[in-house]
Amino acid sequence: MINAILIRETGGADVLKYEQVELGQPKAGEARIRHEAVGLNFIDVYFRTGLYKAPQLPFIPGQEGAGTVVAVGEGVTNVKVGDRVAYTGAMGSYADERLIAADRLVKVPDNMDLRLAASMMLKGMTAYYLINLTYKVQKGDTILIHAAAGGVGQIAGQWAKHLGATVIGTAGSQEKIDLALSLGYDHVINYREDNFVEKVKEITGGKGLPVVYDSVGKDTFPASLQVLQPRGLFVSYGNASGPVPPFELALLNQYGSLYATRPTLGSYIATREELERAAQALFDVVASGAVQINVNQTYALRDAAQAQRDLEARKTTGTTILIP
């Protein structure tokens, strides 16, 4: 028996139940890992509420974690018992131990703490694809990242700055503004007090931006379109305030022949080669010191409900982990 968080029905944080469940031995192609830590992400809330449909009920939530391989199934060659590993994009991390397809695991560098690795796989590889693939940030670009003090916002802001961009962020409190500025953001706008469209136009001299990264959703749309220059790219990768409402494609024409995309990490690490490339890029940029990962909140796994409440209330900054 292992300890895990189960969701038997979608709803509020109270549906997260700490229970004991059976866990079998790994089948062919699988590995069993013992978690050192589990990452907390907004996508966990989306599955809990039913915004994103889970494969079945009941289910164990969670998309990322890190730990040690304790058993492998037939045919597994990329990891062995005792290896330190991490992963993202595989539902079921809110547990002491789990089974997972072995080809979704990456080895954690010997000099990297497993708790750090657990905290950054989803957010860090999301930042990787956003600024390196969805739109390739170049030296001299000026970009906008909403929720600058959030997990992805902190990593993406530092990474874009490392690439030579001028980075504008938004945040909802002075504490979060100060945090983002301390991590290298050039400008951070208080979206609760200031009109971020007007502020961006002031900063850019009215030119607008080639790209805006928006994880907020409903509250920042369609204003995010208004900060873009002609043929600019609107990247919607989250819905912290609720989903972007349906809109007519003609709106993109109205604001200057804009492009819009709704990417997801799974599409960028679908193959083993893509997964390894993304993980290596993340490990390298963190090891270099160019990107600092801040694990600012730690909760016991049994307290996952409170952790999600705090995340939804925007009381958290940086990354958050659950400890089994």
From TrEMBL:
Matches recorded under InterPro entries: ADH-like_C, ADH-like_N, ER, GroES-like_sf, NAD(P)-bd_dom_sf, QOR-like, Quin_OxRdtase/zeta-crystal_CS
Gene3D superfamilies membership: Medium-chain alcohol dehydrogenases, catalytic domain, NAD(P)-binding Rossmann-like Domain
E.C. no: 1.6.5.5
CDD domains registered for this protein in UniProt: QOR2
Key words of the record: NADP, Oxidoreductase
Protein name, UniProt field: NADPH2:quinone reductase
Top EC group: oxidoreductase
Domain Enoyl reductase (ER): 11-322
PROSITE patterns per record: QOR_ZETA_CRYSTAL (PS01162)
Pfam families, alphabetized: ADH_N, ADH_zinc_N
SMART domains: PKS_ER
Keyword Kinase: no
GO molecular function: mRNA 3'-UTR AU-rich region binding; NADPH binding; quinone reductase (NADPH) activity; zinc ion binding
GO cellular component: cytosol
Keyword check for Oxidoreductase: yes
Cleaved signal peptide residues: none
